[in-house]
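As promised in the previous annual report, we have extended the structural survey to additional targets. Below is the entry for Manganese ABC transporter ATP-binding protein.
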Amino acid sequence: MYAIEVEQLNVSYFETTALEKLSVRFTAGQLVGIIGPNGAGKSTFIKAIMGLIPAGAKTITLLGQSTKEARTRVAYVPQRSAIDWDFPIRVLDAVLIGCYPKLGLFKRPTKQHRALAVACLERVGMQDYANRQIGELSGGQQQRVFLARALAQEAELLLLDEPFVGVDAGSERVIIDLLRTLRNEGKTIVVVHHDLSKAADYFDTLMLLNRQLVAVGPPKDVLHAKTIEGAYGNSLAFLQKVEVTS
Ligand code: ADP
Ligand code: MG
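The corresponding structure token record, generated without further manual editing, is:
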């Protein structure tokens, strides 16, 4: 059983082809990084497999089910810029939303749900912020709250789009440690990550995109000078920032 199985995925926005003939499979229980230059289709890939944008594909399955069937088993945290941070919501309520799939329609959260939400905030070190407005938090704190919400949902597959952008070093540590713990518990975590410098350290598997699949596999294979050059162009300034295997 694959956590994600995609065959022949094509996505276009009017005249722009964002993804072409993309086929890829990820086994469950690993930490996967999606890398590639700006505009490579990384966010598009996540949105397409979540069924949030129209896409053509021969197969898209999440945890062996259709996207619709798997919905409650999958948590998605969009790119920071795609979230309205001025929306007035308390931290605890933002996490409680994660319990809704279990609640069903019209049911109010119970004491147990609140206790679960608080426990999830504790796992990301944000319990002291439960009554704050989400908009008052720093980028790193907001990202931790969204992760707490994914925990409350008890999702088996987590899809995170650029979770480290605009995040302080302390929060980045907390987040990556938690992602590793979740991976060790058997969950599958897929992270869009455009900064290559930590890619080898953070991920078990990398998928390098550039409108098409450029490479997928262990970081040491994917971060090979030739593959990186192919996707990013041979900009030396860029390559010097990354330790590529030659
Ligand atoms: P990445 O996340 O890798 O930076 P995206 O998936 O956001 O890339 O975008 C892939 C391509 O699709 C880019 O060329 C982008 O300009 C285009 N694109 C993304 N979203 C839209 C949209 N809503 N309408 C039109 N074009 C879009
Ligand atoms: Mg993106």
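The longest strand covers residues 2-13. Residues 2-83+155-239 form a domain with the Rossmann fold fold (CATH 3.40.50.300). These points will be discussed at the next consortium meeting with the crystallography subgroup.
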